[in-house]
Amino acid sequence: MHYLLLGVAIICEVIATTCLKLSDSFTKLLPSIATVVFYALSFYCLTFPMRTLPTGVIYAIWSGVGIVLIGVVSWLLLGQKLDWPAIIGMALIIVGVLVINLFSRSVAH
């Protein structure tokens, strides 16, 4: 269940960050409200995995997966470009998250 809520926290963070871009520095009302609401939901959902998993591991997964998803969403929905160094860097982030989840003893609780 903690990984499900971590996933929800990541998705909410990606939505919030996308809305932050769309808010145009908080000058557009609906994206601004959505930014605040989805960041609040993200942090709320993030509190539940913290009951059972180490904070460093949770943050590594949350931020790493969030970075990759924001990059993909920005590319697909906002028309932003990703060059090869950005793509390789994101692939390394994915590998890092996999290493933590597959091999770290910190995750096994």
From TrEMBL:
Keyword Iron on entry: no
Q: Name one GO molecular function term.
A: antiporter activity
Hey, what's the signal peptide range on this chain?
none
Q: Which Gene3D superfamilies does its entry note?
A: 1.10.3730.20
Source organism, top-level taxon: Bacteria
Q: Does the keyword Transport apply?
A: yes
Which Pfam family is one of this chain's hits? Answer: Multi_Drug_Res
Q: Which GO terms describe its biological process?
A: glycine betaine transport; xenobiotic detoxification by transmembrane export across the plasma membrane
Q: What is one term from the GO cellular component aspect held by the record?
A: plasma membrane
Give the membrane topology: Multi-pass membrane protein
UniProtKB keywords? Cell membrane, Membrane, Transmembrane, Transmembrane helix, Transport
| Ranges that cross the membrane | 26-46, 58-78, 84-103
Q: Which InterPro entries match?
A: EmrE-like, Small_drug/metabolite_transptr, Small_multidrug_res
State where the protein is found.
Cell membrane
Family listed: Belongs to the drug/metabolite transporter (DMT) superfamily. Small multidrug resistance (SMR) (TC 2.A.7.1) family.
Protein name, as recorded: Multidrug transporter
